[in-house]
Each structure stands twice: as structure tokens, then as C-alpha cells.
Design goal:
This protein is α/β, with parallel strands linked by helices. The chain contains 11 helices and 22 strands. The chain folds into 2 domains: 135 residues, no CATH class; 282 residues, TIM Barrel (Alpha-Beta Barrel), CATH 3.20.20.70. The strands form 5 sheets. An 8-stranded parallel sheet has the order 21-20-19-18-14-11-10-22. A 5-stranded antiparallel sheet has the order 3-2-5-6-9. It has a 4-stranded antiparallel sheet with strand order 1-8-7-4, with no helix packed on it. A hairpin with a 2-residue loop joins β7 and β8. α7 runs parallel beside α8. It starts with a strand and ends in a 16-residue tail after the last helix.
Length: 445
């Protein structure tokens, strides 16, 4: 689609002008930026697919929000540009300075409104709260109490084994940690796309779910159902289910799954109906952007419509009472179908192991999406990592508890020191929250 001008905003000389741009998916840069700064851009080609919106790369020097862009001209007002029905269409919205004016353009339907306050920060907060309230009401947002979670990922990564889950299950009970969900993360499956088969380190997810439930906890499971690894059996057997380039991970090329193809839809239905029958009523759905990858599909519909139809199918298969956490997901099109949304980058990547990072990767987007908490879903800040080798453990635990609604941690419990056990207990005892935050963080740089 072509971009058409929808607004022109005069810039007062000397005014501090800012733009809030909302990213496409969980891992997309989101925040408030000075109009004089360089807009976020992918450093490598794969990031356009896996971090930004693949089909609409932004020109140099142009700010681009996906479904939401707010201009703060420096006079205590916030000019809000937003997609009115993101479950159908999410316009890319651009802002650029042209001859002393901020020109806003979009490639789809956009509504415009203005909020006023006594400061730019307060005007931005009022604008974000209004957008959240309106979108949540229009899309029947799911906002309910969140469980507390132990997750295997940041300790074991892809090498997790059934014995690791059972060891930590025993440790949770021995320390009487208030954990609701024991979540088995990536590594249990035979391959990315092969969700009906187990890796060699697991004998039975059904038996494991039974043991978790017998100990008084809810079984949780990670999947990436909308992408397919090129090396998977599914990709080899059903190339007709694949759509577009979804990037690279797990040492292989990734493809999106055509969520309109009858065969692919039947496969997803069998996967999630079967998992629910095994006892999994908490699922984390990762890399969901794959369902909205551009490309030809069985049915003639937009990527957003295809994505939404696939997510609705998964929700129906799991049941309305299942708790669904989305991650790597197109954010605004997911409202009403998921219970929690990862709103920021990973705590760290496997390549960063332990002290290999000097900044908190998730902080900026976590604070910039704080307005979604309790309005669109429960905000998931990602797991707290409390073992001593994670240098940022204290700062991240405080941020995750302050600006997150879902409470989770990811450590081998035997590796926690006294501080780690105390901090995890504090995190979990406070429980998850479904309430919007009373105040939002200041976002202006």
C-alpha cells in the first residue's frame, strides 16, 4: 500500500519535539525519541524480519510506528495516530520533519486524536492510557489474575531434560516456594515445527504433566507454533504449508506457517487439543510473528487476518480457561486472544551467558509498554534470573516486579544463594497483578 499524508504538525523553533513509536512485535524497538535523534534501525538484514515489520522497512531518518505513533510538539499536547481496528488492519505510521513541520503519513486506516496536559510526559501518559482503554474495550481484552511461574529456559536452554524438571519440582516444594506453574521451555520437542514428537531427553510429556499436577502445580509448556524449521519433518512433508522467510534460528532457516491452509490448521488443532488433553492449561507461544510473515497463502487475506485466524484457532483448541502467554508476537493484533504478552526483549540470550551484557536488554520496551498492563492483558516482563552469576539480577528483579504483571523466574534452584532464594520468594509472594499501573514511567529522553 502507498503512504498518504494524514497530518501536518507545525514545529515551534526551539521546542523539544518527541515521537513515541510503537513497534510491530514483542522484540521491536518501542519508546519515545527526540525528533533530532536517529530512529531505531535493524543492524543486520535478518533483524528486519525478526525484530521489525518485514514488509515495511522505514526510510532513513523516518520514525515509524506500527499501529500507533504519537507526536509531542513540546507544548503539553500529544497528537495520537492509531489504527482503529488492529485485529483487521495495522497501518504503518511514519513521521518525518519537512520544512519546519512534522509530516505524518500512513499506509492504512488511522484515527487521530489530541490529549492535553500540564507537561509532555503527562500528555503522553494520558494518550497511552486512552488508547489502551479504547483498544481493550473494542477487542474484549482478556485481563485476569496471573499465575506465578518457574521456567526452565534461562538455566538449561535447549539442553533441558525431563530430570531437570523433576529436580526443580522437588526443590520448589522443599523450599515451599509459591509457584503456580512449572513451565517446560524450548528443548522438549523433536524439532521446530514437529510438535507431536519428543526430543530424546523426554519420555512422556503426559506423565510429566501428571507429576507436576500431582505436586499441586499447573503444567506449562513452550511452543513456537507459527514457525517451521527448514530441517524439520513437517517442512519436508508439507512444503505447501510454508509461507515466506521467517529468519534464522536453531541453526536453520525458518519459514512462516500458512495459518489459512486447511492441512496446517488441522495440524495445529491436533497439537493443541492433544496438549490440553495431557493436562497443559498454561502455554507460552513464542515466535508468533511467523504467522504474519508476508507471502502467498491458501486463502486470499492479509498477514494480519491470517495471524488472527491462527491465534483464534489455538485459543479455541486450548479452551477459554487456558492461560496463554504470547511472545515474539505482533502486539496489537493479539488483543482479546491472549492472557499475557511479553512486552520486551529477552532477559538475555544464550550467547550473552551470565555476565556477557552490560545493559538490561528489556528495560526500554518494558517501560514504554507499561500502559498495556491491565488494559490489553497482563504484561510479561520476562523471567527474573536470581542466581549469583547474573550480574544484573538485583536491578532486573526490581524492574520486572515494578513494571511487570506476570511473575516468573528461571534458575536451577540448587544454584540460588540465600539472596536469590529470598528475592524469588518476595517476587512470588506478591503474586501477579491484573491492575493497570497507577502511574506510568516517564518516557521522554
Amino acid at each position: 500500500m502507498t503512504f498518504e499524508v494524514i497530518n501536518e504538525i507545525p514545529v515551534v523553533p526551539g521546542a523539544a519535539v518527541h515521537v513515541y513509536q510503537h513497534g510491530w512485535q514483542t522484540w521491536s524497538p518501542t519508546g519515545c525519541f527526540s525528533i533530532d535523534s536517529a530512529p531505531p534501525r535493524p543492524d543486520r538484514a535478518w533483524q528486519q524480519i525478526m525484530r521489525f515489520r518485514p514488509e515495511t522497512p522505514a526510510p532513513d531518518g523516518v520514525f515509524q510506528g506500527e499501529g500507533l505513533l504519537i507526536v509531542l510538539p513540546g507544548d503539553g499536547s500529544a497528537l495520537v495516530h492509531f489504527a482503529p481496528a488492529p485485529q483487521v488492519e495495522v497501518a504503518s505510521i511514519r513521521a518525518t520533519v519537512v520544512a519546519g513541520r512534522i509530516v505524518v503519513s500512513a499506509d492504512g486506516a488511522v484515527d487521530v486524536r489530541t490529549e492535553h496536559a500540564d507537561s509532555d510526559d503527562n500528555a503522553l501518559a494520558a494518550a497511552l492510557e486512552a488508547v489502551g482503554d479504547g483498544l481493550g474495550a473494542a477487542s474484549d481484552a482478556r485481563v485476569a489474575a496471573a499465575p506465578t511461574v518457574w521456567c526452565s529456559w534461562y538455566q538449561y536452554f535447549l539442553e533441558v531434560a525431563e530430570a531437570d524438571i523433576l529436580e526443580n519440582l522437588r526443590a520448589i516444594d522443599a523450599l515451599e516456594l509459591p509457584v503456580d506453574v512449572v513451565q517446560i521451555d524450548d528443548g522438549w520437542e523433536a524439532g521446530i515445527g514437529d510438535w507431536l514428537d519428543l526430543s530424546s531427553r523426554f519420555s512422556s510429556t503426559r506423565a510429566l504433566a501428571d507429576q507436576i499436577r500431582a505436586a499441586g502445580h499447573r503444567p506449562g509448556l513452550w511452543l513456537a507454533p507459527f514457525i517451521v524449521g527448514a530441517e524439520s519433518e513437517t517442512a519436508r512433508a508439507h512444503p505447501e504449508w510454508l509461507v515466506g522467510d521467517a529468519g534464522w534460528n536453531w541453526d536453520q532457516r525458518l519459514h512462516g506457517l500458512d495459518l489459512t491452509h486447511p492441512g496446517a490448521r488441522d495440524y495445529l488443532r491436533r497439537v493443541f487439543t492433544g496438549l490440553r488433553e495431557q493436562g497443559f492449561d498454561y502455554v507460552k507461544l513464542d515466535f508468533l510473528y511467523g504467522g504474519a510473515i508476508p507471502g502467498p497463502r491458501h486463502d486470499d487475506c492479509s498477514p494480519v487476518q491470517a495471524y488472527r485466524s491462527g491465534l483464534a484457532l489455538v485459543r479455541q483448541a486450548l479452551g477459554d480457561d487456558a492461560f496463554v502467554v504470547a511472545c515474539g508476537a505482533p502486539v496489537l493484533p493479539s488483543v482479546g486472544l491472549v492472557d499475557a504478552m511479553r512486552v520486551s526483549a529477552d532477559t538475555y540470550n544464550p550467547e550473552d551467558l551470565d555476565n556477557g551484557q552490560d545493559v538490561l536488554r528489556g528495560r526500554a520496551a518494558l517501560e514504554a509498554r507499561a500502559w498495556q498492563q491491565g488494559r490489553l492483558w497482563i504484561n510479561d516482563p520476562d523471567c527474573v534470573v536470581a542466581r549469583p552469576r547474573f550480574a544484573q539480577r538485583a536491578e532486573w528483579a526490581d524492574l520486572a516486579q515494578r513494571w511487570g504483571g506476570l511473575r516468573s523466574f528461571s534458575d536451577r534452584i540448587a544454584d540460588l544463594d540465600d539472596w536469590g532464594v529470598r528475592r524469588v520468594r518476595t517476587l512470588l509472594q506478591s503474586g501477579g497483578t491484573a491492575d493497570p499501573f497507577e502511574t506510568l514511567p516517564g518516557l521522554l529522553p
